[in-house]
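Note to self: the last two entries modelled the partners one at a time, which told us nothing about the interface. This time every component goes in together.
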Amino acid sequence: MRASLERALRALSSLRLACVLLLFLGLLTWLGTLEQVTSGLYDVQKKYFESFVLVHHAGPVPIPLPGANLVLSLLFVNLLVGGMLRLRKGVATLGVLVAHVGIAVLLVGAFVKHRFSDEGHVTLYEGQRSATFQSYFLWEIAILEDLGSGRVREHLIPNGRLEEALGSGRVRIAPSGLPFDVEVSRFLRNCAPRREGADANAVDGVVLEERPAHTEAEQNIAGVAIEIVDEKDGMRRQALLWGAESRPLVVTVAGKPWAITLRHEEYPMPFSVALDRFTKEDHPRIDMPKSFASDVTVTENGSSRPVRISMNAPLRSQGFVVYQASWGPAGAGPGTPLYSTLAVVRNPADRLPLAGCIVIAIGLVAHFARKLFRYVRVEGRTA
Amino acid sequence: MARVVHLVACAAFVASCGSSNDGAAVRTVERSRVVGDRAVDFHRGDSTADRFGLGASPHGSAAGKAPATVPDGSSGSKSPIAWTVPAGWTELPPTAMRTANFHPGGDPHTDCYLTLLGGDAGGLGANVNRWRAQLSLPALSPSEIDALPRSPFVGGDAVLVEANGTWRGMNGTDSNVGWALTGLLHVDPNGSAFLKMTGPADVVAAQHDAFLQLARSFRSAKAEVHGDEVRFAPAGDDHAARSSTGEFSFEIPAGWRKAPERPMRNASFYAGPGEDLECYVTVFPGEAGGILANVNRWRGQLGEPAIADADLAALHRIPMLGREAVLVECTGKGSQLVGAACAGADRSVFVKMSGPPERVQQQRSAFLQFCASIRSGN
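The predicted structure of the combined assembly is written out below.
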């Protein structure tokens, strides 16, 4: 038993394993880059870098590969166990040890970001304010309940539940406290509505026509076919929701109206951002923007402050980073009101990459400084 | 717009697995929050088409069922265009891009359809060579295109394209060896018409004469047929007549004048003094390819890149015809364009003004006022 454990630990801490894992990382990076010729960044990231296993198709030949999630997890274990078992501890290897700790910090930062961060955007015209931001890629069904006095309770069905209905899947969702269930019979990542009374999938004379996914996944507009199932009598009502619909579906169940809509997932921020002024400066005589910036008012904990967010000057507050990302509408003519799109990232490990790099730099500087010092000393003796 | 967000219970996501009677997996979701600034009308019961911006259905939202088929041997009675279906051909319901739609000789693998587009749709050469590329054939030079034969179609001599090759399909994903294409192109800056037949070479060859006979038969639905050849009025003449009898009413902004009638246009105006800035209204049956395709066609005319659905959704809406029209504004090639596009199941209405940027800016408010004044009927 003890021998088996030692063998396992030796294997896990071996340099050979580290080399194999690094080769796999290189291979995944290469294949993931090539895949972007035909697939978008979002899909490639999910397939190669956020998976544990994947199947890469080299022409007609399927090749199973470990995903970057698995490779990086093993690398972390290899680094940790190797550092404990194999690395000589002493003044001579202190710098290398510190550099390894820095690499481990980077890996931990990547894990935390992957598991616990949210990314999205808030898009505002001048005069608008928002305390939420929207995902670029993920969708949710929001069931809105009128509480009176302008207040609304949102019951949310997240993207993960909807994706279970991709292909031929069918999922029934029972939002807590509602008098009805929502059964999702079809989830389309990208689609457009079309009038078609004769189609078997038509609802109210309209079908959602599936379209090839855009390589830029944020341009996809999702759609769902749902059935609202009354808990009381089991009555079903079919409906379609589309990501670009102008108004929500309104149904009456248990004598009360409910508004149901499909939208990008929304996340709350601990502060609100109001766009006071958006400035775009073009290069002379062409429409290419030279710079653009948003003057916003940030309100948090009852107090407000003006902030200018520009391309390399983000707003950082309470674990959120707000960047100037883009503007629109595209091709707007002179005098057309412009909107500003601010990218928002909530990453609890926002500063870990910087910390990891500093630790690695300290370790390497210490290690090579010691080497240099010893070399100079030896050379001095021989001279 | 102060926002009050009370997070009552969020991010608590509990999923339990089970199975409903019909086999669907059952998930329980407990994720909710209370917000204070959602402007939701809980008493508005829109149809699906209205919510999706497809416009009001001519059949009413409850019925909402388009006819599944059009009987053989007739022509689409709802369309402003009429035609005579060749014997043995199967007529199919029109689609967004196909004003008339057939299986020649009843062969399910062979398609023939009429497409109407505003403007020159990219020009004659581009369309001829696009068709040839679909058959895996090299592009023709301008002189070779000039030398192509002509045949009667929509009141004039259209360019006739006949080619055999390997059919790659509209998306380049098919590979049908031994196919053929016969097509007619009437390309005009004021509106273009395309009639195209594709399928196995033997079927296309056998239906060649029937194809040309169909091409000669297109006419205004209201026109009397005098023999085979009738002047084509895709939308202009037909709708202009109805316009004057009350299909549309509108207020002409101060300083605007009516411009001479043009084919494919329902109404044309000189916007402001001079004749360098025109604004015109066109009406097409059905969805006319959809809003996005038409917006991108306008953008393409000014050399601007196409936009995607998401960009389209972000464009401003203005009131027109009791619905919402997409407002398109772009600048390029020394011109500026401002247009409004309003699609519906029965018809699609487009209002466009383009010209020198400074002139367009001067008349922009008048353009918006004009669009808002357009009403159905008197």
